Amino acid sequence: MAHPPVTTGGGWLLLLVLAAWLAWKTARAFVRAYDLLDTLPIRTPKENTTMSRYPLRIAGSIVGALTAVVSGLVGSGLFTADQGNAVTGVITGLVTLLAAFGVVVSTEQKVTPLADPRNRQGQPLTPAQTTGEALTGEAGSWEADRG
User: Fold this and answer.
1) pLDDT tens digit string along 52-61?
2) How far is CA 47 from the centre of its chain?
C-alpha cells in the first residue's frame, strides 16, 4: 500500500494567515486604545503622589515577603541554609542602603541650608523684618548685616 505524500505547506500557510490576522487585530486594538487615551481629560497631579501615608508598613511588607520567599526556598531544599543566610544578608543590606538614601531624599527638600539659604525660585532668603526696621526693597544677606 502506498502512503500519500506528506505536505506541510498548507500548515505553514494557515499559520502565516493566522499570525497576520492577529497582528492586524492587535494593531487596531492599539490604535483604538490610543484614541481613547487621547480623549481622556488631563489630570492635574496631586501635590504628593509619590509618598505613601505608611511607607514603613510598605517597606516592612516587602522585606517580610522577600525573607519569607527565601525561607520557603530553604525549607523546600532549593537553597541550603548558608545560601539562605547569604541571600537574607543581601536583602538586609539593600534595604539599609535604600533606607539611607530614602531618608536623605525625603528630608532634603524640607531643610533649609544654613550656607546661602534660597527658596525654590533661587531668591536669597533673609531674616523676617521686625517692626522697627524700614523696608528697603533689597534682599540682602544676613552675613552682610552682621558686621
Assistant:
1) 667 677 777 8
2) 16
Q: Which residues pair with 118 in a beta bridge?
A: 124
pTM above 0.70, yes or no: no
Q: Is 49 left (phi over 0), alpha (psi -120 to 50) or beta?
A: alpha
The 3-class SS string of the chain reads: CCCCCCCCHHHHHHHHHHHHHHHHHHHHHHHHHHHHHHHCCCCCCCCCCCCCCCHHHHHHHHHHHHHHHHHHHHHHCCCCHHHHHHHHHHHHHHHHHHHHHHHHHHHHCCCCCCCCCECCCCCECCCCCCCCCCCCCCCCCHHHHHC
Q: Could you report how far apart the first and last alpha carbons of the chain are, in Å?
A: 115
Contact 15, 22 (CB under 8 A): no
Rg (CA), the chain: 32
